[in-house]
Design goal:
With about 450 residues, this protein is of the alpha/beta class. The protein contains 17 helices and 15 strands.
Length: about 450
């Protein structure tokens, strides 16, 4: 009825006719105000009932509210949450103080999400919440795994699991205690980190995973907050983890690591004495062709290489990638356009010439495998001789996934190939030319 009133333009008239109690009920109806990712999922990945609901999101994405509303829904046996209210629920945080200050008494905590007439009795000294129907929720700290020995539950809410110092021990003790009721379940709300436990839960077929970035909850955040943190951390490892809610981890055997990427990052690009745009063209012009790597980089007077831009395209036809490469060349007033010609031969220079005949093309040909070409460039990163002017998430993902087999996550590393050609041209190949200095 409410949605129909909104659709038909009768919402104000409907609300005007509600009593104060009815308005309060409307305000506290989570199924109406919560986002889809904040409501209990229908099932796990295979459609079977889930035993663990893993909610991963950025800072301020509404994870705590999701957890509090889920516990409320269980305790009050609300439709979509539980048919019968559980008798015992576990509330587990990193410390007792975290449970009290965030999960229970916080702005989005359990006490705030209940109407006044349904709010449970909170006894801090006993670390106990009690609802009028007899449901109780006990508070536990992940610092004391053994405190979970003995108690038994029908449900549990675990907050910020990725931060728990004794995560494995606490989690194991909880699993032994989830032994009441017809179908014990647990909710995990956490900012994602690539801990062993988090990764194991993500892979468990009995886990339902939902995600949310900070931007999804922008309407409930302080004005300017999102803009400020995105400007400072957008695209970085920390930002992708804490804002976008991604699990960012290193790949065993990769030439680059996430820490190397962060160490290479600059807020502002310094003046460069020479700039090149490197292109790794796709092997064909079909719609299923590989992406086209297009990278701009420069070198400073003291020999520091600066990656300036990633303008790579996905499944681009020749005229498209040539136009993008030429546009990047003019944008940075580059000195040359370096293009791999293994696949296209003279066609590569011809296509670029059609886009702009005045752009000098320096053809390069690969005589060694991708890994052998990339290894010297990775060494320059380790030596601190290459920097990134900002964040390039797609490029950095390829770099941190590139292994001995010459692929990144099983795919051709086209952005990385272009990067290797650019850095090689600037730092690993002697060039007598001395281009003019320019500010970026």
């Amino acid at each position: 009825m409410l949605l129909a009133a909104v659709r038909d333009g009768h919402f104000e008239a409907l609300v005007a006719g509600l009593s104060a109690h009815e308005l309060e009920c409307l305000m506290f109806d989570w199924c109406l105000s919560g986002r889809a990712d904040q409501l209990p999922p229908a099932g796990a990945r295979d459609g079977a009932p889930w035993t663990t609901w893993l909610v991963m999101g950025g800072r301020g994405a509404g994870k705590t509210r999701t957890g509090a509303e889920w516990v409320r829904g269980l305790a009050l046996a609300l439709p979509g949450f539980a048919e019968v209210a559980p008798q015992r629920i576990a509330l587990i945080g990193e410390t007792h103080e975290d449970v009290r200050n965030v999960m229970i008494e916080g702005v989005s905590g359990l006490l705030s999400v209940h109407r006044r007439d349904e709010r449970p009795l909170w006894e801090p000294s006993r670390r106990l919440l009690t609802w009028k129907n007899g449901t109780i929720a006990q508070v536990f700290s992940a610092e004391q795994p053994d405190s979970l020995r003995g108690p038994q539950f029908e449900a549990a809410w675990c907050d910020e699991l990725a931060k728990w110092r004794q995560a494995e021990a606490t989690w194991d003790m909880l699993q032994f205690g989830l032994r009441l009721g017809r179908f014990p379940r647990q909710l995990v709300t956490t900012t994602p980190r690539p801990t062993a436990l988090v990764k194991r839960l993500m892979q468990d077929p009995r886990t339902a995973v939902t995600r949310a970035a900070t931007a999804a909850n922008a309407a409930h955040l302080a004005p300017g907050f999102l803009e400020a943190v995105l400007a400072r951390y957008g695209g970085t490892k920390l930002g992708r983890q804490e804002i976008d809610g991604e699990v960012i981890e290193d790949v065993a055997g990769a030439l680059w690591t996430r820490d190397m990427m962060e160490a290479a990052r600059l807020a502002v690009a310094p003046a460069c004495r020479k700039i090149v745009v490197a292109v790794d063209p796709p092997a064909s012009s079909s719609k299923r062709a590989d992406a086209c790597g297009i990278i701009a980089a420069g070198v400073t007077a003291d020999g520091l290489v600066i990656v300036l831009a990633d303008a790579s395209l996905t499944q681009a036809r020749p005229a498209q990638w040539a136009a993008a490469a030429v546009a990047l060349y003019h944008r940075f007033e580059a000195d040359a356009l370096v293009a791999e010609v293994n696949q296209g031969g003279e066609m590569v220079a011809a296509v670029i010439g059609e886009a702009d005949a005045g752009v000098p093309v320096r053809p390069v040909r690969a005589t060694r495998g991708k890994y052998l070409r990339a290894a010297p460039v990775a060494q320059l990163y380790e030596q601190g001789r290459v920097r990134h002017a900002g964040a390039f998430p797609a490029l950095e993902d390829e770099m941190c996934a590139f292994t001995l087999e010459g692929k990144a996550d099983g795919h051709s590393p086209d952005r990385l190939d272009a990067l290797v050609w650019a850095v090689t041209a600037l730092a690993l190949v002697k060039d007598a030319a001395e281009p003019r200095m320019r500010r970026l």
